[in-house]
Amino acid sequence: MTPRRGTASWRSLQRDSPAIRGKGDTLGGIRIYRLGTQSWTYFPDWLATFYPPRMPQADALAFYAQVFDTVEVNATFHGLPSESTLRTWYDKTPPGFSFAVKVPREITHDMRLELPAVERKTRELLRIAGLLRDKCGPLLVQLPPSFEPSLEHRRRLQAFLDLLPIDEYQIAVELRHPSWADPSTAEALGERNVAWVLVDGDQSNARKMLYTADFTYVRWNRSGLPMRNWSELHYDRTRSLDWWAEQLRALPSGVETVYGYMSNEFAGHAPASLRMLCERLGLPCIDPKAKWPQQVLF
User: Fold this and answer.
1) What percent of the chain has pLDDT over 90?
2) pTM of the predicted model, to two decimals?
3) Are 33 and 48 contacting, i.e. CB atoms less than 8 angstroms apart?
4) How far apart, in whole angstroms, are the C-alpha atoms of residue 13 and residue 8?
5) Domain positions in the chain
6) What's the rounded Cα separation, in Å, for the pair 227 and 42?
7) What integer pLDDT is reported at residue 72 of this predicted model?
8) What is the DSSP-derived secondary structure letter of residue 209?
9) From CA 150, how far away is CA 282, in angstroms rounded?
10) Top CATH class, 8-297
11) CA 68, CA 182: separation in Å to the nearest integer?
12) Where would I find the beta strands (DSSP E) of 224-274?
């Protein structure tokens, strides 16, 4: 699991990590960017566009990790993977790689954070996530739009966050009902160093901007536009990318790390959209074809 800010192990991890560093207004002028996509398992759409043609799906994660240094794991939203799966993910990725782990929908959508009902499942999630050790990135707690900011839901959210070991994990919360974006929410998250998730997309909480932790978490979600496949860009999202690049260049000085995850549904092909964003931020980006076996290129 990722050491918390301020500890010697956290400082060592930040120094040794291959994460992209870019100019920012943090102390010292450097901000860390961890940018990737929402999942890596897009077959066959990403074959011959991102992944080499005919590459086995079992090799996808190892290849992905040569291009991006983080990924958001959507599979955990639908159910916790086996221990052997987590160990395989760990072994197939290089040092410094980061997995953002999505909290299971059973906790967030079905039981809606109600304690003590979610306690056993939450402790199992923490045990499984811990198998990723130093490669465990933020835990993403995504609540449905129907989880409005009532007194009962505020109580549930605070009690659930108090259940999590925030000294051991980075926690990010995506509150999809737009009324959550208020000073009391910012205060409740801020006192725990829990990040408010920034989102773009066809949803009511889009572009509600709060900064409540020493890191921020961005999700570029579905645009609501029809897509034929995930193998190519279908829409020009230049204006949206320009807007986000401006926001990320102007983050508050206390935000030291940016985790960001692009969806295929943003414009059609997440890796291409992410490279366009990196170019706007002046960050280095890797052409995946540069990692293809040489015989594929000729």
Assistant:
1) 85
2) 0.90
3) no
4) 9
5) 8-297
6) 14
7) 98
8) -
9) 42
10) alpha beta
11) 34
12) 257-262
**CA 262 to CA 298: how far, in whole Å?**
31
Neighbours of 110 (CB within 10 A): 13
Dihedral sign from CA coordinates of 117, 121, 123, 125: negative
| Mean pLDDT confidence for 195-202 | 95
How confident is the model at residue 204, as a pLDDT? 82
Residue closest to 203 by CA, chosen among 183, 184, 222? 222
In whole angstroms, give the CA distance from residue 278 to residue 284: 7
Q: Within a 10 A sphere around the Cβ of 73, how many other Cβ atoms? A: 22
Q: Can you give the pLDDT at residue 10?
A: 29
Residue type, 176: R
pLDDT at 243 over 70: yes
Taking 90 as the threshold, does the pLDDT of residue 280 lie above it? yes
d(CA 232, CA 229): 7
Q: What is the CA radius of gyration of the chain?
A: 19
H/E segment holding residue 259 = strand 257-262
* Residue with token string 């639908």: 78
- pLDDT score recorded for residue 205: 86
How far is it, in rounded angstroms, from Cα 203 to Cα 200? 8
Which tokens is 149 given?
Answer: 């900011």
Task: Say if CB 197 and CB 238 are below 8 A apart.
Answer: no
What's the residue count for the chain? Answer: 298
Other residues' Cβ atoms within 10 Å of the Cβ of residue 37: 26
Using DSSP's 3-state secondary structure scheme, residue 151 falls into helix
Cβ atoms of 271 and 33 within 8 Å: the answer is: no
Q: In which band, very low, low, confident or very high, does the pLDDT at 64 lie, cut at 50, 70 and 90?
A: very high
Q: Are 200 and 240 in contact (CB under 8 A)?
A: yes
3-state secondary structure (DSSP) of residue 174: strand
